[in-house]
Amino acid sequence: SKKPRVAVLGAAGGIGQPLALLLKASPLIGELSLYDIVGTEGVAADLSHIDSSVKVSSATGAEKLSDALYGCDLVVIPAGVPRKPGMTRDDLFNINASIVRDLCAAVAKYCPQAWVAIISNPVNSTVPIAAEVFKRAGTYDPRKLLGVTKLDVLRANMFIAEAIGKAPESVSVPVIGGHAGVTILPLLSQATPRVDVSAEKAKALTERIQDAGTEVVKAKAGKGSATLSMAYAAAKFAESCVLALQGQAVVECAYVESHLTDLPFFASQVRLGPSGVEEYLPLGRFSELEAKGFEALKSELRGSIQKGIDFVRKG
Ligand code: APR
């Protein structure tokens, strides 16, 4: 079948540029449509010299958004402002909430069938915002709206691989919940290979995974948040979406509308297929630490979801 057309909205940004590069280099992508409010042409021209068959086009500014979205199968959204030191993900809320709302309204209009993968933070709220926008437009398909939490999985894999002395490529840790602080819940007890560490060590590893974004914010000292690792995670996730679109079953962790818990949106392992999320894998048994973590994340995640919904309803 025809290789998919993938849009990156926010393509000139810190995440957008390396994401565009990785997608340009991907054998799975047919066309790459780059959109930003500034600087898109330069990124597209630069990438267009790479000898890959992926066809790159660019569009700049709201009046060109329709061109960017037309015919897209997958829309990846890293548009927004990044977190600066001292800023929590929620400080970004108002700016990024408006950006995601407006971009998703355009998706509903110009490529209503497309899958949408959201990176713009706070993901715990921006995914419910997108859902609300699509509902209003009458285009909502919960199976095709995905919050990208794969960086949390990569971090969990990496940190645990280091802790148990295994190659990171051989480690796989499900991460559930949300995409900020304590809402990020790595399930060490369900890791492959088995993670045999003390309760104390498990707690420390969990906390490092939950705070990993801040490690990068601090190290970048005022220049932004994770971009390269986020782009890598998003590119891998986009490739999984593209494989699924073309009929291959793939399992990924993603933040989606879900009925696995009493929270309306929840990140968990999902099986993706041609129509989007086709199966929500059971959460499995929690360790004592994980059960506590699950209880602890509920109120924050519920609040972030409601904040997103209210932003669209009351805004
Ligand atoms: N439409 C499209 N692009 C936009 C819009 C918009 N309405 N508003 C801003 N952008 C673009 C900016 O022009 C910029 O190129 O989004 C890009 C964001 O890039 P950076 O400022 O470098 O931010 P980045 O580090 O990439 O993070 C972006 O992802 O992880 C999240 O918290 C992070 O929400 C933030 C987002």
Automatic annotation (TrEMBL):
The protein's assembly and partners: Homodimer.
Gene3D superfamilies reported in the protein's UniProt record: Lactate dehydrogenase/glycoside hydrolase, family 4, C-terminal (3.90.110.10), NAD(P)-binding Rossmann-like Domain (3.40.50.720)
Catalytic activity: (S)-malate + NAD(+) = oxaloacetate + NADH + H(+)
EC class name: oxidoreductase
GO MF terms, alphabetically ordered: L-malate dehydrogenase (NAD+) activity
Keyword annotations of the record: NAD, Oxidoreductase, Tricarboxylic acid cycle
Keyword Ribonucleoprotein: no
Organism: Coccomyxa viridis
Protein known as: Malate dehydrogenase
Record-listed substrate binding positions: 83, 89, 121, 155
Positions contributing to NAD(+) binding: 10-16, 36, 96, 119-121, 230
Domain Lactate/malate dehydrogenase N-terminal: 5-147
Domain Lactate/malate dehydrogenase C-terminal: 149-311
Record-linked Pfam families: Ldh_1_C, Ldh_1_N
InterPro entries referenced in this protein's UniProt entry, alphabetically: L-lactate/malate_DH, Lactate/malate_DH_C, Lactate/malate_DH_N, Lactate_DH/Glyco_Ohase_4_C, Malate_DH_AS, Malate_DH_type1, NAD(P)-bd_dom_sf
Family: Belongs to the LDH/MDH superfamily. MDH type 1 family.
Source taxonomy: Eukaryota, Viridiplantae, Chlorophyta, core chlorophytes, Trebouxiophyceae
Enzyme Commission number(s) of this protein: 1.1.1.37
